[in-house]
């Protein structure tokens, strides 16, 4: 039985979790079906293939050894049974309604923390699969790789083999130690400076704007999901006319949708500029923790109070350029990097407190999850739509995840069901905002 210690951020996710705030991410995929029995066949395939994917056999256990006291590690579950993880549900006409209820339920921590829920469509020509992965097991990229392991195989271009360096003796490395010491000291001082910068930026980010009550919530543990599909060509039309990147346009659409939604609810948008956390992957190949989360982030104010859609896009573009120029290792959005400097026992004891502090850090999560350009299938059935679903931090009512697949952008929305009973209205506002931007760019 092999095991490896969780990376610091993985350990933080493992300890932040509570019954009302499970820390799993998800993806709802909708497939075309050749027959009414396609969903049942898909469930059988998923269970059969899961046994052959090593990453799906990994559970997480606590570690109390002297050098890793309070940590946790991944290890192969000797009693792994795919049937404990793959569930076939009754036919439904509303995939998102079922997905919302399933996203409420924490994953069982005593076995590999993932599930696949298959939902046949009542129409007989579609079925959906909701994948759930604990954030301590996988980030978005790792979750995609695990899910791909149980979908139909695809032909990918082979990567050139990596040259293997010959082993070196210990003595030359020991001789280099005196020369490395100044660099180590500079690195430690740089870490202190970075932590101070992050703390100061976080304090500044809490000042000067009205609290958005619609984006905050007492923890009810309920969940609702919704999805919106946008043509990527429309996004490019806006980008080419108004400037910025594709990501800038997609974030600006969220800002505009929030404005429309708040105005429709009667909450008003005057003085509203919620802090959006935009996660940034810092994953590097062949690191010491290839399966671990390596995340930082940018924190920007969404210009919800600006009545001009193109003005909102310009504000988002400016804020993102400023964040990129500063780098992803400084600023309030980089709080996740501090996890590397907290001992394992600190994560275990302070996890609940850190989770409750999320509302002081940001108001809404807006994250992008990359997907392959290749068409994906399950049992020969084509994946038509895929909605990424992010976890909700304590005290937060709405999270937005975005993926581009086969020429279409998919917004996956997750909300506290009691705080945001009108999530469908926010979804409609996303569609209306992109239409508004298109009309302005075509004028």
From TrEMBL:
Identify the Pfam families for this entry: WS_DGAT_C, WS_DGAT_cat
**Molecular function (GO) terms listed?**
diacylglycerol O-acyltransferase activity
Does the record's keyword annotation contain Endoplasmic reticulum? no
Q: What residues does the O-acyltransferase WSD1-like N-terminal domain cover?
A: 6-249
- Domain named O-acyltransferase WSD1 C-terminal is located at 292-437
Look up keyword Lipid metabolism and say if it applies: yes
For biological process, the GO terms are: biological process involved in interaction with host; glycerol metabolic process; response to hypoxia; response to nitric oxide; triglyceride biosynthetic process
Q: What is its EC number?
A: 2.3.1.20
Pathway(s) annotated for this protein in UniProt: Lipid metabolism; Glycerolipid metabolism; triacylglycerol biosynthesis
What family is it from? Belongs to the long-chain O-acyltransferase family.
**NCBIfam families linked to this entry:** acyl_WS_DGAT
Q: What is this protein called?
A: Diacylglycerol O-acyltransferase
């Amino acid at each position: 039985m092999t095991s490896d210690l969780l990376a610091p951020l993985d350990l933080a996710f493992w300890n932040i979790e509570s019954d009302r705030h499970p820390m799993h991410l998800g993806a709802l995929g909708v497939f075309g079906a050749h027959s009414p029995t396609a969903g049942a066949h898909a469930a059988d395939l998923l269970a059969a293939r899961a046994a052959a994917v090593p990453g799906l056999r990994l559970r997480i256990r606590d570690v109390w050894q002297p050098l890793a006291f309070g940590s946790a590690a991944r290890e192969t579950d000797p009693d792994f049974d795919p049937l404990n993880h793959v569930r076939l549900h009754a036919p439904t006409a509303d995939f998102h309604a079922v997905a919302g209820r399933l996203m409420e339920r924490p994953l069982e921590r005593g076995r590999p923390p993932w599930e696949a829920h298959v939902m046949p469509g009542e129409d007989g020509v579609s079925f959906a699969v909701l994948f759930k992965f604990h954030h301590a097991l996988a980030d978005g990229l790792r979750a995609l790789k695990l899910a791909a392991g149980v979908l139909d195989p695809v032909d990918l271009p082979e990567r050139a083999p990596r040259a293997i360096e010959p082993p070196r003796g210990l003595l030359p490395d020991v001789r280099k130690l005196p020369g490395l010491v100044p660099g180590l000291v500079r690195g430690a001082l740089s870490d202190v400076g970075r932590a101070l910068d992050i703390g100061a930026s976080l304090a500044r980010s809490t000042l000067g704007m009205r609290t958005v009550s619609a984006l905050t919530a007492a923890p009810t543990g309920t969940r609702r999901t919704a999805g919106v599909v946008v043509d990527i060509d429309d996004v490019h039309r806006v980008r080419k006319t108004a400037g910025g990147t594709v990501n800038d346009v997609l974030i600006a659409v969220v800002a505009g949708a929030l404005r429309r939604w708040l105005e429709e609810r009667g909450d008003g948008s005057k003085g509203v500029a919620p802090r959006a956390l935009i996660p940034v992957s810092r994953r590097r190949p062949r690191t010491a923790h290839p399966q671990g989360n390596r995340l930082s982030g940018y924190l920007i104010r969404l210009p919800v109070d600006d009545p001009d859609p193109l003005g909102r896009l310009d504000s988002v573009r400016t804020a993102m350029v400023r964040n990129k120029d500063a780098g992803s290792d400084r600023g309030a959005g980089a709080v996740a990097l501090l996890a590397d400097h907290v001992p394992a026992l600190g994560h275990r004891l302070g996890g609940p407190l850190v989770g409750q502090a999320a509302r002081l850090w940001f108001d809404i999560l807006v994250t992008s999850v990359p997907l392959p350009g290749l068409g994906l299938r399950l049992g020969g059935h084509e994946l038509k739509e895929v909605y990424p679903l992010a976890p909700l931090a304590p005290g937060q009512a709405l999270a937005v995840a975005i993926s581009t697949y086969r020429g279409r952008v998919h917004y996956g929305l997750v909300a506290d069901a009691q705080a945001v009973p009108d999530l469908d209205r926010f979804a409609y506002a996303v569609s209306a905002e992109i239409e508004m931007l298109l009309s302005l760019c075509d004028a």
